């Protein structure tokens, strides 16, 4: 990739980080934390974005960022009060800035009217001071000179003579800033030939000489047909720290300037001035230092004190506030490592198998060593998986803005509370929960929360609360979205379900079952499909994408009080705890998380219903029986349940079935391999794995098999197995 | 000799293999490895030409019974059979064949067109025919060995 | 002899761009992320010129320049500040702290190299 394109990518990556910093900083300020460090960090975030944007010529972005930055600058210098209204505006400005950044990155368009509106409000806030100085310019003529009148003599009126006479007397300060006369003279020399003379007459005795003082006056005759600006530009950096006189001179007959007359002779006004200046300079030498110290002291509160330099260097880290040493690693490398460790686990299992087959005594040294190896391998696997584990914070961080937008669109007041952002989950899972979570939150605000009036009428506070929580529970990660709205309107849900033919009019459903009707396909109680939740994006889509992750979603509702969506996901998509079963000579894996219990069916428990449907009476009810061999097409005739082993499994939405298999071989943790990587999805099968004998075993898609009980055959579309599981090819 | 393609792109190396009495060949660049037969795990309700899947160093590899693909009866795989692992686009697939017979260097000029009387299936992946020492070897285009299947967005 | 430039800026993007421009111009580049880091790097390197941003966390440009000027070893090292700020107050402040000169962001690589050349012995 060409280097500029690479840097551009870096820039946009950095922008995302800055935008995140910006948002969290502004939110802290809104909550009352207006310490200088927070305010400065916020300012720097926008400043940084502006700087980079300028380098890439992103004019719209620069323009807006500049106005934004001006407002933030006023706050950080204490000239603007971070009142709640102002903070709300700044948060909206941050959203607008993010839109501009992404538009610049992806080439999309932005809502110009909205952004212009926010810009206008920012200008109002800053009293219009943002309007000035939009462009950076090189002109710093506003910096005061050490005033020395330029002697403009009649020579100016003559036709432009190609030559300049420069009288240059540096002050000690000039050297203190590491500028050097020699370099300046060298620069002048680039404009044209020069003749330089020096007047050392102000040089004191050696005893009185301050090695850092300045005592010399330089006179330079420059033969160059250039403008005065060009000459002055050479001294651009040192104008304040010297006496500078630039005069035109005639090329011919221009005498080499005589060294200034000795004081013994008739001193000119200039020379007296020079003398006085010089005297002042050596006395003044400590002053600039004092001046430097004063601003430093004044800003000591604002900036980190210079003592920081003497402190032990903090661990160098990529995190902006030194959270601890971290390094950036290419995701590919981590994935490769995880693949290799997966192989290690498989190989270790194969080794165990061979040893077992070789018939070594249990207590033999080899077996013991092998057990240790297994322990070690498991630990390595856990450690490696932990590398990719990330806190859900990165997902949660997107929610405040979403809440602001949806609240604005629905005209409701909403407050978002979050808890458990540090809960860790595999990176692969994190990326996949963003969409479902987004829909759930939109739903909670759009449908869950009542309008402000309705809330007030019900005696609730006008502001609705949406609470987002993440936690670990029984080896899974659980994410809850809770709102304090009106809860599910069960009458309406039931009516809608009947209307859509999802349930029969006289079906008896528990409250919980009624609530879960909203997950059925094609279900939407919104009278118009609101823009917010999107056309056709109902909770059924959410549920399917959650299921595709091996997760579950359910809802609990309290009328008048609110609803809670609970999302339960596996911690990782790469490994699975499974029960190894055999079906018609084939080895299959059934995910342990789906198994409720195992049983040995008795003949009298099994009943026929119709031609080919069988149910088993247990737990006070009747549960459909599924012969796995038949369902997968391994054998045409189902086995007899009483001669088999059965597993009571629970699929999505609490649907249960009893799966009939030939036998159970044991339980083990297996590494998930994708079928889609080299082949395609297979109905009824979720993924594959490699067993101890090196052979491939298939992992059952429990939900697909269970849904067989709801329809006659295993339809390919009923088992939408999206390629979600870790591809390990 | 009829030149089918004008301006042949030069020589290329091919691996020839045998299914029953017929011989075929594929571009050597697409071949990843050749291995002996391993029992494959059957996939439920798979098309007849898919024997199943095997473990290839951790990856799950589908095995295509080439005989079935041609319309011949299913192979009875045994230790004498060979699996040619090929790369087709981004996927790896194993072709179950009787044996590898030869490595050839052929010029594109030598390729004859597939006769029209061949079945559609055969025409879909046989690019052309080549005479070699009195034998006929059919050149396979791997892209169509596996019929296009609908894939979910990965 | 190849000159060494120390660039101090908290923006990765800026650091990359500075490096690109300077390396192309034949300089050797060492980098730091903020003022504190810059002082650490100075323990190990002896740059011919230092280019520093002003707004940085931990120790900003002003503080950094002042710290550098206080140390005899680096007192006479030319230091250029990078600034998008046109505020004369800030420029004056940088000068007062001891900056040798300045470069305005977004920087023109030619001007950057020119400024460095002008102050480098």
Automatic annotation (TrEMBL), chain B:
<protein>
    <submittedName>
        <fullName>Putative CheW protein</fullName>
    </submittedName>
</protein>
<dbReference type="InterPro" id="IPR002545">
    <property type="entry name" value="CheW-lke_dom"/>
</dbReference>
<dbReference type="InterPro" id="IPR036061">
    <property type="entry name" value="CheW-like_dom_sf"/>
</dbReference>
<feature type="domain" description="CheW-like">
    <location>
        <begin position="11"/>
        <end position="151"/>
    </location>
</feature>
<dbReference type="GO" id="GO:0005829">
    <property type="term" value="C:cytosol"/>
</dbReference>
<dbReference type="GO" id="GO:0006935">
    <property type="term" value="P:chemotaxis"/>
</dbReference>
<dbReference type="Pfam" id="PF01584">
    <property type="entry name" value="CheW"/>
</dbReference>
<dbReference type="InterPro" id="IPR039315">
    <property type="entry name" value="CheW"/>
</dbReference>
<dbReference type="GO" id="GO:0007165">
    <property type="term" value="P:signal transduction"/>
</dbReference>
TrEMBL record, chain C:
<feature type="domain" description="Response regulatory">
    <location>
        <begin position="4"/>
        <end position="120"/>
    </location>
</feature>
<dbReference type="GO" id="GO:0000160">
    <property type="term" value="P:phosphorelay signal transduction system"/>
</dbReference>
<dbReference type="InterPro" id="IPR011006">
    <property type="entry name" value="CheY-like_superfamily"/>
</dbReference>
<protein>
    <submittedName>
        <fullName>Response regulator receiver protein</fullName>
    </submittedName>
</protein>
<keyword id="KW-0597">Phosphoprotein</keyword>
<dbReference type="InterPro" id="IPR050595">
    <property type="entry name" value="Bact_response_regulator"/>
</dbReference>
<dbReference type="InterPro" id="IPR001789">
    <property type="entry name" value="Sig_transdc_resp-reg_receiver"/>
</dbReference>
<dbReference type="Pfam" id="PF00072">
    <property type="entry name" value="Response_reg"/>
</dbReference>
<feature type="modified residue" description="4-aspartylphosphate">
    <location>
        <position position="53"/>
    </location>
</feature>
């Amino acid at each position: 990739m060409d280097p500029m394109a690479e840097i551009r990518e870096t820039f946009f990556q950095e922008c995302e980080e800055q935008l995140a910093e910006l948002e969290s900083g502004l939110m802290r300020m809104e909550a009352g934390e207006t310490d200088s460090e927070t305010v400065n960090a916020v300012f720097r975030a926008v400043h940084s974005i502006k700087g980079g944007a300028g380098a890439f010529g992103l004019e719209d972005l620069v323009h807006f960022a500049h106005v934004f930055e001006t407002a933030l600058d006023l706050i950080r210098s204490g000239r603007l009060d971070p009142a709640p209204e102002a903070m709300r505006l700044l948060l909206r400005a941050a959203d607008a800035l993010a839109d501009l950044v992404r538009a610049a990155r992806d080439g999309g368009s932005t809502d110009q009217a909205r952004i212009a509106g926010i810009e206008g409000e920012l200008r109002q806030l800053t009293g219009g001071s943002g309007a000035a100085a939009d462009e950076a310019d090189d002109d710093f003529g506003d910096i005061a000179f050490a005033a020395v009148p330029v002697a403009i003599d009649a020579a100016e009126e003559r036709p432009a003579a190609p030559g300049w006479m420069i009288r240059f007397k540096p002050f000690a300060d000039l050297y203190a800033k590491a500028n050097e006369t020699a370099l300046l003279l060298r620069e002048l020399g680039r404009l044209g030939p020069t003749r330089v003379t020096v007047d050392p007459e102000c040089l004191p005795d050696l005893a009185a000489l301050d090695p850092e003082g300045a005592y010399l006056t330089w006179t330079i005759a420059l033969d160059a047909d250039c403008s005065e600006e060009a000459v002055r530009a050479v001294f651009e950096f040192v104008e304040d720290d010297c006496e500078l006189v630039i005069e035109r001179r005639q090329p011919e007959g221009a005498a080499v300037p005589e060294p200034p007359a000795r004081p013994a002779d008739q001193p000119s006004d200039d020379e007296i001035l020079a003398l006085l200046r010089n005297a002042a300079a050596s006395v003044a030498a400590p002053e600039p230092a004092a001046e430097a110290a004063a601003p430093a002291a004044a800003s000591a509160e604002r900036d980190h004190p210079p003592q920081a330099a003497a402190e032990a260097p903090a661990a160098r880290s990529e995190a902006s506030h030194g959270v601890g040493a971290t390094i950036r690693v290419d995701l590919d490398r981590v994935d490769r490592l995880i693949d290799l460790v997966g192989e290690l686990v498989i190989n270790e299992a194969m080794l165990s198998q061979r040893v077992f087959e070789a018939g070594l005594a249990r207590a033999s040294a080899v077996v013991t060593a092998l057990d240790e190896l297994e322990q070690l391998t498991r630990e390595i696997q856990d450690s490696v998986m932990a590398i990719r584990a990330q806190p859900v914070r990165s997902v949660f961080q997107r929610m405040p803005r979403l809440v602001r937008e949806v609240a604005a669109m629905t005209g409701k007041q909403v407050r978002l509370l979050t808890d458990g952002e540090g809960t860790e989950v595999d990176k692969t899972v994190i990326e996949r929960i963003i969409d479902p979570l987004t829909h759930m939150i939109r739903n909670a605000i759009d449908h869950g929360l009542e309008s402000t009036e309705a809330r007030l009428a019900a005696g609730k506070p006008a502001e609705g609360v949406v609470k987002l929580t993440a936690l670990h529970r029984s080896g899974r990660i659980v994410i809850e979205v809770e709102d304090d709205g009106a809860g599910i309107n069960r009458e309406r849900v039931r009516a809608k379900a009947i209307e859509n033919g999802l349930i029969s009019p006289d079906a008896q459903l528990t409250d919980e079952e009624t609530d879960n009707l909203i997950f059925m396909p094609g279900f939407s109680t919104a009278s118009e499909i609101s823009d917010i939740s999107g056309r056709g994006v109902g909770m059924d889509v959410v549920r399917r994408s959650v299921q595709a992750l091996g997760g579950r979603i359910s809802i609990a509702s309290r009328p008048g009080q609110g609803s809670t969506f609970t999302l339960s996901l596996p911690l990782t998509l790469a490994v699975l705890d499974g029960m190894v079963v055999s079906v018609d000579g084939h080895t299959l894996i059934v995910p342990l998380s789906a198994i409720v219990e195992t049983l040995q069916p008795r003949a009298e428990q099994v009943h026929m219903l119709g031609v080919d449907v069988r149910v088993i009476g247990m737990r006070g009810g009747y549960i459909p029986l599924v012969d796995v061999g038949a369902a997968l097409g391994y054998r045409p005739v189902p086995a007899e349940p009483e001669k088999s082993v059965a597993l009571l499994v629970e699929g999505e939405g609490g649907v249960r079935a009893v799966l009939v298999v030939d036998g159970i071989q044991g339980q083990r943790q297996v590494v998930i391999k994708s079928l889609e990587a080299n082949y395609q999805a297979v109905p009824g099968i979720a993924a594959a794995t490699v067993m101890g004998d090196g052979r491939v075993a298939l992992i059952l898609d429990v939900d697909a098999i269970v849904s067989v009980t709801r329809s006659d055959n295993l339809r390919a579309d009923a088992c939408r197995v999206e390629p979600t599981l870790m591809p390990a090819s | 000799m009829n030149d089918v393609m004008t301006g042949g792109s030069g020589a290329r190396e091919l691996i020839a293999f045998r299914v029953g009495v017929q011989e075929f060949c594929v571009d050597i660049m697409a071949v990843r490895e050749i291995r002996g037969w391993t029992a494959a795990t059957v996939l439920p309700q798979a098309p007849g030409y898919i024997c199943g899947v095997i473990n290839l160093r951790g990856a799950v590899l589908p095995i295509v019974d080439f005989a079935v693909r041609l319309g011949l009866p299913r192979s009875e795989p045994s230790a004498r059979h060979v699996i040619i692992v090929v790369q087709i686009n981004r996927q790896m697939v194993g072709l179950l064949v009787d044996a590898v017979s030869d490595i050839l260097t052929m010029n594109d000029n030598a390729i004859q067109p597939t006769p029209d009387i061949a079945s559609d299936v055969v025409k879909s992946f046989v690019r052309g025919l080549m005479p070699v020492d009195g034998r006929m070897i059919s050149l396979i285009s791997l892209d169509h060995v596996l019929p296009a299947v609908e894939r979910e967005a990965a | 002899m190849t000159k060494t430039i120390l660039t101090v800026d908290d923006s990765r993007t800026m650091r990359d761009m500075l490096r690109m421009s300077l390396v192309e111009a034949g300089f050797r580049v060492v980098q730091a992320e903020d003022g504190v880091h810059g002082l650490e790097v100075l323990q190990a390197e002896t740059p011919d010129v230092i280019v520093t941003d002003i707004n940085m966390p931990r120790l900003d440009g002003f503080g950094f320049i002042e710290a550098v000027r206080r140390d005899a070893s680096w007192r006479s090292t030319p230091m250029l500040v990078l600034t998008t700020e046109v505020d004369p107050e800030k420029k004056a402040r940088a000068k007062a702290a001891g900056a040798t000169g300045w470069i305005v962001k977004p920087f023109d690589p030619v001007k950057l190299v020119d400024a460095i050349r002008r102050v480098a012995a």
